[in-house]
Design brief:
- The complex is a heterodimer of chains A (242) and B (250).
- By secondary structure, chain A is an alpha/beta fold.
- Chain A has a domain of 165 residues: P-loop containing nucleotide triphosphate hydrolases (Rossmann fold).
- Chain A is built from eight helices and nine strands.
- In chain A, helix 3 packs across helix 4 and helix 7 crosses helix 8.
- Chain A is globular, with a radius of gyration of 18 Å.
- Chain B has 250 residues and is mainly alpha-helical.
- Chain B has one domain.
- Chain B is globular, with a radius of gyration of 19 Å.
- Classes of the chains: A alpha/beta (242), B mainly alpha (250).
- At the A-B interface, helix 2 of A face helix 1, helix 4 and helix 5 of B.
Chain lengths: 242, 250
């Protein structure tokens, strides 16, 4: 369970996250949606204690992230898949993270198998394709068998098989009773994966509702139409009309 | 302790660690032997003023760049890729990460530097022996100077680590390392000689290298006082780095 109360982050004069109050519940997949620059990644960094909030609080399972002992066993996160030393193998990347949180070595081999990287685990990560990097990032998130998962655009670079695999994985994790908080730009994909959606624009909360409720309330026919309607005033960058 | 294990796994699992330490070893031994050969072919006019120990350990002057860069890369390599965010989600208190890196970089550097300086000393003395310029390891101050050379390299690696954590970019931290080890002496080199002598010995590199000097030299502090001052500079920078790293957004 993730709880944000009045969460605010300013960088100089710009407000990235603006008085955000939201609860992300266990047992369902919660989609985190918003146009580019809406503050999704900043919100995730605030949850993980990487950035300090300007105001407000955010907790995971009732505590600030940094107060958790062995946090990887509590929260698994994927922020940027490319955040790997290019000269280090996937195995050693995962092993170092496991050791820092006293997670057994056997678990490293388990997650490597689970994400389908067993054949390339000893190769330098710099040789990985974007899809393989994404699988490694998901392996990092799963490493501590956490009750909460925070995934920023986990579908980037994945092929059809990979997308189907992540969709199934997210639904299984939620069915286990875990909290699954996942951002995406792909509305059609979110419509298939998420049960609940949180929509932000310019750092502010625009909607926090079940997927069905959101679409019904907007009077539109799909999540994508509802999203475009909802964020019409919050889009930072827009292409020209055809 | 778990963080030290994790940092050791990172340290040993990149090729750059091996190459940097190997180059440090080759530079300490190779440059030391070459310089001893130069001195043997052109013997000093006054052999009593010749420091045979320091001469055979002159490769340390070059190798310090390699170990300093090793320390820098231990931190900046993580900032360059964004890996530092994953590291800090695993260890959100952050300071243990810096301490873990310091323990691993120091242990790795000392483990390679000590055999390197012993080889450089023994080989250098055997080159100097035909001219009667050599000294024995058991002569006063010599063992201290040889072990001190390895300790000096170890602290240089930690200085690189501190600068890397403070500046977060490889280029910036390497430039600052060159500044600390070389540019400061060049700058005060323009001062009159008597002022230079009183000032230069307190700068980081001459202070740290005092521990490698066997013959008393007015341009250097006493061996352990100098080394302690160099270590103090490094500890202050590490503490500053820890304070910055804890507070900054990443």
């Amino acid at each position: 369970m993730i709880e944000a109360k009045g969460l605010t982050k300013r960088f100089g004069g710009t407000v990235a996250v603006d008085d955000l109050t939201v609860t992300v519940r266990p047992g369902v997949v919660t989609g985190f949606l918003g146009p580019n620059g809406a503050g999704k990644s900043t919100t995730m960094r605030l949850i993980l204690g990487l950035d300090a909030p300007t105001a407000g609080t955010v907790t995971v399972d009732g505590r600030r992230y940094a107060e958790h002992d062995r946090p990887l066993t509590r929260v698994g996160a994927l922020l940027e898949a490319r955040a790997v030393h290019p000269g280090r193998s996937a195995y050693h990347h995962l092993l170092a993270l496991a050791q820092s949180n006293r997670i057994p070595r056997s678990r490293v081999l388990d997650v490597i198998d689970a994400v389908g990287l067993a054949d390339v685990a000893r190769r330098r990560a710099g040789t990985f394709s974007l899809g393989m990097e994404q699988r490694l990032g998901i392996a990092v998130a799963l490493l501590g068998d956490p009750g909460t998962l925070i995934l920023d655009e986990p579908l980037n670079g994945l092929d059809t098989e990979g997308i189907r695999w992540v969709r199934g994985l997210l639904r299984d994790l939620a069915a286990d009773g875990r909290t699954v908080f996942v951002s995406s730009h792909l509305m059609s994909e979110m419509a298939l994966t998420a049960d609940h959606v949180v929509v932000i624009g310019r750092g502010r909360l625009l909607a926090d509702a079940s997927l069905d409720q959101l679409v019904a309330d907007s009077g539109r026919s799909s999540l994508e139409e509802a999203f475009v309607h909802l964020t019409a005033d919050a889009v930072e960058y827009r292409g020209g009309r055809r | 302790m778990s963080v030290v294990r994790a940092e050791f796994t990172k340290f040993r699992s990149t090729a750059s660690t091996g190459w940097t330490l190997l180059s440090a070893l080759v530079l300490v031994a190779g440059v030391g032997i070459l310089y001893a050969m130069v001195r043997a072919s052109r013997p000093p006019a006054d052999p009593s003023a010749f420091d045979a120990t320091a001469a055979s350990l002159s490769g340390v002057q070059v190798a310090q760049i390699a170990v300093g860069v090793l320390g820098v890369l231990a931190v900046t390599g993580e900032y360059a890729t964004g890996l530092i965010r994953t590291t800090f989600t695993a260890v959100p208190r952050r300071t243990p990460v810096l301490l873990g890196k310091a323990v691993v970089v120091a242990a790795g550097t000392f483990a390679v530097s000590l055999p390197a300086v012993v080889v450089a000393f023994l080989a250098g003395q055997s080159v100097l022996a035909p001219e009667g310029l050599n000294v024995s390891l058991t002569a006063p101050g010599v063992l201290r100077a040889v072990v001190g050379a390895a300790l000096y390299l170890t602290v240089v690696a930690l200085l690189g680590l501190a600068l890397g954590a403070l500046l977060r970019s490889t280029a910036g931290a390497v430039a600052a390392l060159f500044g600390a080890l070389f540019a400061l002496q060049m700058t005060v080199g323009f001062l009159p000689d008597d002022v230079y002598r009183d000032v230069a010995k307190y700068l980081p590199a001459p202070a740290g290298q005092a521990v490698v000097i066997v013959r008393p030299d007015p341009y250097y502090l006493s061996p352990w006082a100098g080394f302690a001052l160099f270590a103090l500079y490094t500890v202050v920078l590490l503490a500053l780095a820890a304070w910055r790293v804890r507070r900054r957004d990443v």
